[in-house]
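Notebook p. 47: complex prediction with cobalamin.
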Amino acid sequence: MKKVLLISANQEKVPYPVAPIGLLYVANALKKAKFDVSILDLCFSGNTNDDIKKTIKQREPDFIGVSLRNVDNLTFPRSVSYLPAIKKIIKTTRRYTDAPLVLGGSAFSLFPKQILSYLGCEWGIVGEGEEAFVNLLKQLNAEANNLNTINNLVWRQDSRINSNPASCLRSPFDFVLDYGLINNYLYANFAGMMNVQTKRGCRFKCSYCTYPSIEGKSYRLRSPAIIAQEVSLLQKKYAIPHVFFVDDVFTYPANHALLVCEALLSKNIKMPWSCFASPYGITKKLLMFMKKAGCTHIEFGSDALSNRVLKKLRKPFAVQDVLKASSLCKEIGIKCAHYIIFGAPGENDDTLREGFATIRKLHGDAIIAMVGIRIYPGTELENLSIHDGVISKQTDLLFPHFYLSRELPTNKLLEKVAKFARENSSCIVPGLEIRSSEKMYAVLRKHYHQGPLWGYLG
Ligand code: B12
Ligand code: SF4
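Predicted complex, structure tokens below:
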């Protein structure tokens, strides 16, 4: 049996360490195809060189897969690129094995050719890894040369980098995921939660967003009964105290969210959970069901609190919907946070004032405020950024560039956001380290053992 070592390169622990469940899905597909699979998760590694060396010596893998989750922290002005650290991990791995090494993961999928070049690697898979990775390994194993038939593959041939069209899996997950290949104890204790997926895809077209390009534009829904089984297993087998549903938008389509809640209720699962949501389509009925089924925290991708900016971002809702979602959460007893981006297209003095006034009306919900938007290739925001002169057509977006409204000087914007946030205890501004720092999160996690930490602030 050929051996595959899957390495998760992510070491970010802010706001929490995040378990590499993407690799668990890939591992599941490899096992089904009769590969012998193990995972080296570097998240808690104190010495990546020693851990990589030891694991490669022990396992003697025939193939390596490296999962790249984050390119950078999306945070202006404290922007951090993870690429130099990733390069070190690849270099170390290469020092101890010359087994074919394949890259994958959300970070890789956003910049496949650039990352392959930057890291000097040969193989990569864009998007869902399950089918394409197995197909590639089968071909490499058989020394076959039908690379053009493998969807989602990116590879180097001499000095050229080739890519095949990318597609999504039709039915990626009709099974209970095996979480046994990662250290659940560490995630239960240091993250206070474990991640579970209930569907893939997002059909909305927000102007800056990469999620539909990573997960697909149409929905692949997971069976509610299987989700409930998985959540129950996480609780019973691994003592996981809290689940985060990692869907782009858990609450849409609402009928699926309702069915997931029903399945959790019918199995009488008492697991607290949280999720991402959109103010679009939120109803009292849905939130009441979610609360009954264990939902304690919701993170809304509200993005802006002025209709002018929401429209420019192509958000499918208005400020009224944000206010309604918030007041319903309060009435029902679910904690809620809103991600807000200041300095987005259309932002000016008036919209900023309107945003601050609306935050006051939200009565203490957590506000996770970002300044500026990370520009990604292929998005509508990229075109706008070129049009507005923020970047040029030649700008390499692998290292972060941020869109900041030209209608406001950036230093003034930062000053105003900082002043407002310092005076309003519900505001967290990671880019300005206001109520947000690695040290603060570590201290909070010592006291609170489960769930999103913003729920304990403010
Ligand atoms: C949920 C989520 C969060 C939650 C996680 C909660 C939790 N407990 O899990 C929270 C809010 C905490 C969060 C935080 C952050 N996040 Co986040 N998050 C997501 C989201 C929506 C889903 C990730 C997920 O779990 N997907 C489900 C799994 C199954 O999919 P997957 O990992 O992509 O794996 C599949 C493929 O990628 C592939 N694959 C994966 N690995 C490999 C390896 C090989 C070899 C192969 C072949 C294939 C392969 O196959 C897998 C199965 O199909 C994504 C957006 C998205 N839709 O992808 C952003 C995303 C991953 N996050 C991102 C970022 C940047 C961050 C933060 C750095 C932001 C910040 N400054 O706080 C932090 C980092 C946290 C950390 N410790 O790493 C970026 C990463 C890319 C980038 N721009 O750098 C994304 C893509 C969003 C974006 N803006 O584009 N995040
Ligand atoms: S911002 Fe949210 S709703 Fe909009 S496209 Fe991205 S994931 Fe979908």
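Notes: The radius of gyration is 22 Å. The chain has two domains: 3-127+129-163, 179-456.
Next step: compare against the earlier run before touching the bench.
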